[in-house]
Write a structure and sequence with these properties.
The complex is a heterotrimer of chains A (135), B (264) and C (308). The model of chain A has no long low-confidence stretch (mean pLDDT 87). The longest helix of chain A is centred in the middle third of the chain and has 14 residues, at 42-55. Chain A has 135 residues and is mainly alpha-helical. Chain A has helices at 2-5, 26-36, 42-55, 71-84, 95-98, 104-112; strands at residues 11-14, 89-93, 121-124. Chain A has one domain: P-loop containing nucleotide triphosphate hydrolases (Rossmann fold). In chain B, α8 runs antiparallel to α9 (235-263). Chain B has 9 helices and no strands. The longest helix of chain B is centred in the middle third of the chain and has 39 residues, at 93-131. Chain C contains 7 helices and 7 strands, in the order αβββββββαααααα. Chain C folds into 2 domains: 36-129; 133-296, no CATH class. Chain C is α/β, with parallel strands linked by helices and 308 residues long. Chain C has a 7-stranded mixed barrel. Classes of the chains: A mainly alpha (135), B mainly alpha (264), C alpha/beta (308). The B-C interface holds B 51-52, 54-55, 58-59, 62, 87-89, 92, 159, 163, 166-167, 170, 173, 189-190, 192-193, 195-197, 199-200, 204 and C 4-5, 7-8, 11-12, 15, 18-19, 22-23, 25-26, 28-31, 52, 54, 60-61, 64, 103-104, 308.
């Protein structure tokens, strides 16, 4: 597992150890990246973040803050943030730790089938959970 | 001999610790200043965070703070007036009021007030951000937390202390007049002259600078203290405790240095 | 409407406006919107005077010391600034005293006597007096000497007064001559009156000197008088005052004579005008001196210090 945490910065990660900023809404958490990394203005950054959430089919969580989210909503926001980074690889590290109350392989597959998302998502999980993915 | 060596070593360790803290503060301040001068920092979102922070630091507490200032000023003015009149020094009462309240006590109390209320909150929040890995997450996203987390807090600290201290001083000046002369204009000339004699340009600039430094101290030190928290939840209270001690110490140092500059 | 932003905006605006209003008030209080009137004070000692020491008129502060320094002759020059609206309290015959109370701060007080006198022009240099008798005596003696010299100068045989009188005699002589009447008509009667006025002033001064000498005696020979050295100095001053008095008496006699002469012809010359100016000057100086002595010597002061 340590190997995943040590992946370099070219990899966007979704992991329990990378929580959302607690006092910002889902939208603001995602918009931080275009805003402070790519220096878009606030409106444009917000628009991009909103578009991404809508693409994943969860536009309704935009105004929610971390403590008010369900595990699924939290996962979607983290995933959207990772997607927003636009890095060559995207790794989902032990999704079971975040999505503890939903059948997560199915949930992730459903998300991945939304809209016109491109690229591959790599999932790292415990070997004893392997059977869960055989759908 | 061993004892001597040990005490010298512990002294050295203490000095090194103090210097490290000082260096950390300076380095952080430099970083904050460069962020302040960076054009990219200044967008609508940062501005909104600053506004929000000013709201929480200054506007929200305004009614309570003003009441508190009224009570403290009234008490101090009454004490000064009574004592001065008892000793036959009534003509110095207005000067004493201004010197004690406006120049020293009220800015100091404002800084303490903000430190207790916002400084401790900032320290806890940053410590929790660190313990919860939120800062690591931001680092992973390559989003520097300076422009939307730290800098707005520093700016709001300076704005709030300067604004609240000036409001407090204005209240004290008016209250002082009312206490000495009552509701008439007879003492206006004399009071004006006293004020003009005490508050020359140098003193006003010094007062402003002191308040700005207070504002910086009560936000900068909690932020750095929060950032230094070890990643253990039980260390958060310890971090706040240490941070607040440092804030208190810094406020004392600023006050003493300003007094020394003024009267020596 | 965003209440957040509205409240913060309101707070910032209100604080800013109040702050600006206070700054404007402060600038007004410091006389920023008014012209500044400058005054120099020459003092024998600047003990306790620092920039910021107030200039007080009738217990009310009207200005303050801005700087002090030495002039070419080693004298102390104190620069005082006051708003123009307060300049009207300063008159040419105002007296400036350094006031060092036991409790409270040093201040310079102005006494303007009657307020109908001529206004003091800007940038004039006035004398600052120190109420410390021991320090003031040498200065006083020097002044008495100077005035005495002046009075003596007037009454010397070859002095202007005598020369003028001689002149007058010639004029009177001429009056009896062929063109005498013409000269007499040309001279104005005002000049003659001027001389009489000068004479009156001299007499008034002499009365003052009389009382002062009496006071000095009282002071010198009182039981709990001054220290021996001071006593000597004061005795010296007394002698000088006597001297001045006798000189002035001489001047008086001469003047009476002169008036008697000129009264005959009801005429004056330029010489008389000059003479009048000179005598007036001496009398004014002596007068100021007497005022000063009266003011400085604590004849009527309660030597006890009352603590609250």
């Amino acid at each position: 597992m340590a190997a995943v945490a040590e992946l370099d910065d070219a990899v966007a990660r979704v992991a329990l150890e990378l929580p959302l900023r607690a006092n910002l809404s889902a939208l603001d958490n995602i918009a931080l990246i275009p805003l402070y990394q790519r220096h878009y203005d606030a409106t444009e950054a917000g628009r991009q973040a909103h578009a991404l959430l809508a693409l994943l089919g969860h536009a309704e969580i935009a105004p929610l803050r971390d403590p008010d989210m369900t595990p699924a909503q939290r996962f979607v926001t983290q995933l959207a943030r990772a997607l927003m980074l636009k890095r060559p690889r995207l790794v989902i590290d032990r999704p079971g730790a975040i999505l503890y109350d939903v059948p997560y392989p199915h949930f992730i597959r459903q998300l991945a089938s939304q809209g016109d998302l491109t690229g591959t998502w790599e999932i790292f999980d415990f070997s004893w959970n392997q059977t869960l993915y055989s759908e | 001999m061993n004892f001597l060596a040990a005490s010298i070593e512990s002294l050295g360790a203490k000095i090194v610790r103090v210097l490290t803290v000082g260096y950390g503060l300076l380095a952080f301040l430099t970083e904050a200043l460069s962020a302040l001068l960076d054009r990219n920092t200044w967008n609508r979102a940062t501005f909104n965070v600053v506004v929000k922070q000013v709201y929480f630091t200054a506007v929200q507490i305004l009614p309570v703070f003003l009441t508190y200032v009224l009570v403290i000023s009234w008490l101090m003015i009454t004490i000064i007036l009574t004592t001065a009149r008892d000793f036959g020094l009534g003509q110095f009462a207005s000067e004493m009021t201004i010197r004690v309240l406006v120049l020293e006590l009220l800015p100091f109390l404002t800084a303490l007030y903000i430190a207790l209320r916002s400084g401790s909150a900032i320290n806890t929040e940053i410590a929790l951000m660190r313990v919860n890995n939120e800062l690591d997450a931001l680092a992973h996203c390559k989003v520097p937390p300076m422009p939307f987390e730290f800098l707005p807090r520093l700016i709001s600290g300076v704005i709030s202390v300067v604004a609240l201290a000036s409001l407090a001083c204005l209240i004290a000046v008016m209250l002082g007049y009312l206490a000495i002369y009552g509701l008439n204009t007879s003492g206006f000339e004399y009071y004006t002259r006293t004020i003009s004699k005490i508050l020359d340009f140098k003193i006003m600039a010094g007062l402003f600078f002191k308040c700005a430094l207070f504002g910086l101290a009560v936000t900068l030190i909690p932020i750095t203290a929060g950032l230094e928290t070890p990643k253990k939840l039980f260390m958060v209270p310890v971090s706040v405790l240490r941070g607040m001690m440092k804030v208190f110490f810094a406020i004392m140092v600023i006050e003493v240095v300003s007094l020394a500059l003024k009267y020596i | 409407m965003n209440t957040f932003h509205f409240k913060v905006g309101l707070f910032t605006l209100a604080t800013f406006l109040l702050g600006t209003a206070f700054l404007a008030y402060l600038l007004y209080a410091r006389g920023y919107f008014e012209n500044t009137y400058r005054l120099q004070l020459a003092a024998a000692t600047a003990d306790g005077v620092v920039p910021g020491v107030p200039l007080v008129f009738s217990g009310i502060e009207i200005g303050h010391v801005t700087s002090l320094g030495l002039n070419e002759n080693g004298g102390i020059v104190i620069q005082v600034e006051l708003p123009e609206r307060h300049a009207k309290w300063l008159k040419q015959d105002s007296i400036y005293t350094l006031d060092k109370p036991l409790i409270g701060s040093v201040k310079i007080s102005v006494d303007s006597g009657d307020l109908v006198g001529a206004a003091l022009p800007e940038n004039s240099t006035m004398l600052l007096l120190t109420p410390d008798i021991n320090k003031e005596i040498p200065v006083l003696i020097a002044q008495v000497k100077a005035i005495l010299a002046n009075v003596e100068h007037l009454t010397r045989k070859e002095s202007d007064v005598n020369a003028t009188l001689a002149n007058l005699k010639t004029v009177t002589g001429r009056m009896t001559g062929e063109y005498g009447m013409l000269e007499g008509v040309l001279g104005s009667p005002q000049n003659a009156r001027a001389v009489t006025e000068s004479l009156d002033k001299t007499r008034a001064l002499m009365t003052k000197l009389d009382t002062l000498t009496a006071k000095t005696d009282q002071w010198l020979f009182a039981r709990d008088g001054l220290a021996d050295s001071t006593r000597e100095s004061l005795a010296q001053v007394r002698l000088m005052l006597d001297d001045a008095q006798s000189s002035l008496k001489k001047a008086d006699a001469l003047m009476t004579n002169a008036v008697a002469i000129s009264a005959d012809v009801k005429a004056g010359t330029q010489d008389i005008a000059a003479l009048r100016a000179e005598i007036d000057d001496a009398v004014r100086k002596a007068n100021a001196l007497v005022n000063e002595i009266n003011k400085l010597w604590p004849f009527a002061r309660d030597p006890e210090v009352k603590l609250p």
